[in-house]
Amino acid sequence: MANMQLTPNQFVLEANRDEAVPPVSQNLESRRYQMFPTLSEAEMKKLQRFGTVRTYHNGVRILEAGHTTFGLIVTLAGRIAISRYDGLGNSWPITEHGRGEFTGEVSQLAGRPTLVNAYAVGDVEALVIPPESLRALVIAEAELGERIVRALILRRVGLLEANSGGPVLVAPAGHGRLHQLRSFLASNAYPHTVLDPKEDEQARSLCEYYQPGPDDWPLVVCPDGSVKKNPSNADMGRCLGLLPDLDEDKVWDVIVVGAGPAGLATAVYAGSEGLSVLALEQRAYGGQAAASARIENYLGFPTGISGGALAGRAFVQAQKFGVELAIPAPTTRLICDTYPLEVQLAEGKRMKGRTVVLSCGARYRRPALDNIAQFEGRGIYYWASRIEANLCQSEEVILVGGGNSAGQAAVFLSGHAKRVHMVIRGEGLKATMSTYLIERIHATANIELHAHTEIVGLEGDEDGLKGVRLRNNRTGEERDSNVCRVFLFIGADPNTDWLGDCGVDVDPQGFIRTGHDVTKAQCRANFDQGIYPKDQPQRAALETSVPGVFAIGDVRAGSTKRVAAGVGEGAQVVSQIHAFLANLPLATH
Ligand SMILES: Cc1cc2nc3c(=O)[nH]c(=O)nc-3n(C[C@H](O)[C@H](O)[C@H](O)COP(=O)(O)OP(=O)(O)OC[C@H]3O[C@@H](n4cnc5c(N)ncnc54)[C@H](O)[C@@H]3O)c2cc1C
Questions:
Q1: Atom 39 (ligand 1): residue with closest C-alpha?
Q2: Is the residue at 338 inside a domain?
Q3: Quick one: which atom of ligand 1 is closest to the CA of 556?
Q4: DSSP state, residue 543
Q5: What is the CATH number of the domain that holds 465?
Q6: Is 298 inside a domain boundary?
Q7: Same-domain pairing of 326 and 407
Q8: Ligand 1 pocket check: which of 288, 310, 332, 487 to mutate, most ligand atoms within 8 Å of Cβ?
Q9: CA-to-CA distance for 40 and 34, rounded, in angstroms?
Q10: Locate the Cyclic nucleotide-binding domain: which residues (predicted)?
């Protein structure tokens, strides 16, 4: 992966994109007053103690996309012009902030680099609030904090809807790695632009300059103007500030591994109770729940909520409480014969924690088909988000699986695809799916159920999947289908293969045992060496065989595999962490 820097505006064409301001939806337009609120004089007075007054002369750049990190900038006098910026040098005016209005979007809560440019229009006086003071402010001034955080979230939604700001991905349409990177960005709610060199003059100029080889796609222009050839997800994380430079010497009260619903709940509850929390996530926040098109059984959402929206709110909430979230940060080893405990990242760093919470959930099962990996992201999908749904507009698709997640995905896809062929091995859905979903499937005209059926072969080329072979297990009959998109929802295995070194006790399927279910206590060494007190109280309900290591959510043996259950355990574990920390000998604090 090469990393190069564009000179500002190097690829801006004479016909700039300035005139084409990407639109936002009517729904968002109607919430413009919430997106760009004007604070009252009384509210501005409340903000004073959180910031410092600064002056900027006319024309000065106050914020530089991809570079400047700040919390909130509140205009006191003059005006601040805000524009979207895409790293290639294109910009789109968004708005101007006068007295009482403020700059920023949701990245600012965590002190990540801004996605927009800002310039002083006339001489400007502004109150500059750093990220940590912004977090203190939204907690201390609850009502004002609500208005501010709502505005920050809506602005990110605006950038996402307009698909503007953030990195620019340049690749031929349909490129497999392009899809993977887009999926990574979309899962982390990062706006981005895709340009096809066949269609776009700017993209063509960029390719002529960088001469990408076959393995160099996509070219990615980061918001700071740096250009990367076929970057890894970690490169993308660094490019966006999602993956911070973590300090190996810092000892965290809690290291959370996995930012699905359970891990995010721990992050929020532990952060809100003053514990220092590092959350490490290998791909995208929200875990499996983020793949759910509509969660209808989560308390408090009578009309349902998409998993992405629920996870997005939790992610912002965790940032509000000062949780450090690193994405993508896959962990590869838990080291528990030392104290503080250590968690090793794939890139080699070892992070230290007084406690570790394993909330690493489960991963989708893959059918035993030789060439399946070749088509992943190019016809084979393990989730059905809006991106995948848009790919199969008016197409026939196959969906494999008979569980609740399969049912939800089928209903969601039926709103986009011409026909959804639901393929199941068994006789029917009754044993595996909730009744309300079965009824909905029966009521949906373009969902067709194929019982006693499985996929036995995949056909395609480098462009993607071109067809599948299906077998009826009762009759043995095989037939070919020219369906090019297959969605697999056939269950999940626990993400515990990286825990071997530490010897965390797991059941035969690999799910982690906790509390009374633990069959063999390991890592007694730390007790014998006096690192833990000999009279450590009985193992807590969510504590694993290793003292100080807890397991929650789907990865825990015997847990209820539901969002609410994971969130409940995520909250419950925090009191057990407090109890563990309170019992540590003083020397280890
Ligand atoms: C399509 C679908 C629809 C669903 N619909 C519903 C529903 O309607 N209602 C309901 O209650 N439940 C639903 N579920 C189930 C629900 O999503 C799960 O029970 C829930 O997400 C479990 O949360 P978790 O945090 O325990 O684990 P997960 O959601 O699996 O999250 C674990 C996280 O850990 C990360 N991780 C794993 N290993 C590592 C590592 N080594 N290093 C760093 N990070 C790691 C993963 O990337 C992931 O983000 C659905 C599931 C799916 C797949």
A1: 360
A2: yes
A3: 26
A4: B
A5: 3.50.50.60
A6: yes
A7: no
A8: 288
A9: 14
A10: 35-155
Are 347 and 451 in the same domain? no
Q: What is the CATH number of the domain that holds 30?
A: 2.60.120.10
Nearest CA to ligand 1 atom 38: 360
* Same domain, residue pair 156 and 46: yes
The CA distance from 413 to 405, in Å, is: 12
Residue 140 in tokens: 């201390």
On whether both 114 and 142 belong to a single domain, the answer is yes
Query: Is residue 9 included in any domain, yes or no?
Result: no
Tell me, using a 6 A CB cutoff, whether residue 262 lines ligand 1: yes
Alpha-carbon distance of 471 to 453, in angstroms, equals 6
Final residue of a structural domain among 161, 180, 212: 161
Centroid of chain to Cα 66: 19
Helix (H) or strand (E) holding 566: helix 563-582
331 in contact with ligand 1, CB cutoff 6 A: yes
Residue 265 shares a structural domain with residue 303: yes
- CA trace torsion 357, 358, 359, 361 (10° rounding): 180
Index of the ligand 1 atom closest to the CA of residue 383 = 1
Last residue within a domain, chosen from 468, 490, 512: 490
Q: What angle do CA 57, 49, 113 make, to 5 degrees?
A: 55
| 255 falls within a domain | yes
**Does residue 218 have a cis peptide bond before it, meaning omega lies within 30 degrees of 0?**
yes
Q: pLDDT tens digits for the chain (589 residues)?
A: 445 665 544 554 433 444 444 556 777 788 889 999 999 999 999 999 999 999 999 999 999 988 888 899 999 999 999 998 888 888 889 899 999 999 998 999 999 999 889 999 999 999 999 999 999 999 999 999 999 999 999 999 988 888 777 899 999 988 889 988 998 999 999 999 999 999 999 999 999 999 999 999 999 999 888 999 999 999 999 999 999 999 999 999 999 999 999 999 999 999 999 999 999 999 999 998 987 777 878 999 998 898 899 999 999 999 999 999 999 999 999 998 888 999 999 999 999 999 999 999 998 888 899 999 888 878 998 878 777 888 888 899 999 999 988 999 999 999 999 999 999 999 999 999 999 999 999 999 999 999 999 999 999 998 899 999 999 999 999 999 999 999 999 988 999 999 988 889 999 989 999 999 998 765 555 555 555 555 566 789 999 988 899 999 999 998 988 899 999 999 999 999 999 998 876 556 5
Mutate to test the pocket of ligand 1, among 187, 242, 292, 315 (most ligand atoms within 8 A of CB): 292
Q: How many angstroms does the Cα of residue 386 sit away from the middle of ligand 1?
A: 18
- Asked if 94 and 82 touch (Cβ cutoff 8 Å), the reply is yes
What one-character-per-residue DSSP string does 462-514 give? TTEEEEEEEEETTT--EEEE----EEE---EEES-GGGGGGT--B-TTSPBP-
- Return d(Cα 486, Cα 436) in angstroms, integer: 24
Q: Looking at the structure, do residues 437 and 555 belong to the same domain, yes or no? A: no
Strand-pair partners of 481: 468
Task: For residues 395 and 439, state if they share a domain.
Answer: yes
User: What's the domain count of the chain?
Assistant: 3
Within a 13 Å sphere around the CA of 442, how many CA atoms are in the beta-carbon half? 10
CB-ligand 1 contact for 279 (6 Å cutoff): no
Quote the domain boundaries for residue 299: 251-362+498-588
ipTM of the complex: 0.99
- Nearest-5° Cα angle at 25, 154 to 410: 95
